[in-house]
Amino acid sequence: MASSLLCAGAASFSLVTNRSPLRRLSPELRSPPLRLIDERTAPEKAPAGSGGSSFNQLLGIKGAARETDIWKIRLQLTKPVTWPPLVWGVVCGAAASGNFHWSVEDVAKSIVCMVMSGPFLTGYAQTLNDWYDRDIDAINEPYRPIPSGAISENEVVIQIWLLLFGGLGLGALLDIWAGHKFPIVFYLALGGSFVSYIYSAPPLKLKQNGWIGNFALGASYISLPWWAGQALFGTLNPDIIVLTLLYSIAGLGIAIVNDFKSIEGDDTLGMQSLPVVFGIDTAKWICVGAIDITQITIAGYLLGAGKPFYALALLGLILPQVFFQFQFFLEDPVKYDVKYQATAQPFFVLGLLVTALATSH
């Protein structure tokens, strides 16, 4: 379900030498992995973290202001900016079911499903990811709440468990509300939570491999919430499962966008993200290729299924994405990653809805 959950394969190879990764860090960061940064790199003195935006802090994105309010820090860890794709996935699933009605009850069900997918399970996944990424963040973003010591380890662990059990509880509630004999929404939530865990945590830590990790992330953001929304109002079928998993290849491409800002830390600690493995120039073309080719393939499928107007609508939404890829992302994926996502991704998510509506008829 939900993606919350953060959340194919290919052999990856290492660009890291046999020397210990910590030997390549600057002296002030050569501390033990679990140690919080000291006063020499404290957030209030770190250029990247000081003078940041309060708005960015509440959204949980880069450039956040230093905050002392524990509830604002907790919200930052859940990265609210990552919730909308999951919420939209639920909308697409409900639309694809062909059984959603604009009644008070159906709207209420969908809102609960969105809360489960976004604030709870995505919040769980993001907090968990920050917990296991604290060493990398100490290099890339040392002003973030966990490496900076703005929140204690016990408080982070408690938040992870509360968000997980809250999300699973809402999944069980939705099954009861929908009258399911088999608790499918609960199991989708449970499966998504498991994917989130193995994505971030050792020993599997799927994110260490750019292909597997990014596909898992793409599936968590597209397939799982779609399945949850469709299962809540209708029935999942093999065609939808295959179609959404195919769409998750585009999600893989979108996930790669986030890897460019972490190249230094990923390289230092041996994370095999695609920009580290292939270099920036090759990885940026893999990224846009995965996004564009997948959507063109889906448009071809819709055309072959006798739905030419939906196919043309999807193709029309691909064109502005390609424009912004050349305008921003392919020009400089490190500098313009946020601007590219802000301009291009709205057209991508609208394409998801077009596909959902096409499959509902």
Automatic annotation (TrEMBL):
Its EC number is 2.5.1.62. PANTHER family: CHLOROPHYLL SYNTHASE, CHLOROPHYLL SYNTHASE, CHLOROPLASTIC. It comes from Ananas comosus (Pineapple). It is an enzyme of class 2 (transferase). The lineage of its organism: Eukaryota, Viridiplantae, Streptophyta, Embryophyta, Tracheophyta. It holds the Pfam family UbiA. It is a multi-pass membrane protein. The gene is LOC109708455. It catalyses: phytyl diphosphate + chlorophyllide a + H(+) = chlorophyll a + diphosphate. This is Chlorophyll synthase, chloroplastic. NCBIfam families: ChlG, chlor_syn_BchG, PRK07566.1.
